[in-house]
Write a structure and sequence with these properties.
Elements: H1 3-25, H2 37-54, H3 59-62, H4 71-81
Helix pairs in contact: 1-2, 1-4
């Protein structure tokens, strides 16, 4: 994984992981379904690899539950409960 790839994965996957956590912990509020566990696990692994490459903390994975009270959580909630919910587009291929 190059540094450029790691930066892209860190940003996109970080948001997507939070979106998935919201869908998982608040399925009645989310207007979109969760990703399957196997795909989520791959996403999380790539995110952690990117964090290692960039030497940064894997913040999105460190939350137990969903951070409803943090600005990032409120942004994800507004995105996932609105009239046109859409997840961040990612690719699990490097």
């Amino acid at each position: 994984m190059t540094k450029n790839q790691a930066e892209k994965i860190y940003t996109l996957f970080g948001w997507r992981i939070l979106e998935e956590k919201f869908c998982y912990y608040y399925p009645n509020d989310a207007k979109i379904e969760c990703t399957e566990d196997v795909e989520y696990d791959k996403m999380e692994e790539l995110y952690k690899q990117a964090c290692g490459k960039l030497e940064v903390e894997s913040v999105a994975c460190n939350y137990v539950g969903f951070p409803r009270d943090l600005p990032c959580g409120r942004l994800v909630m507004s995105k996932m409960t609105g009239d046109n919910p859409v997840k961040t587009k990612i690719s699990l291929k490097i």
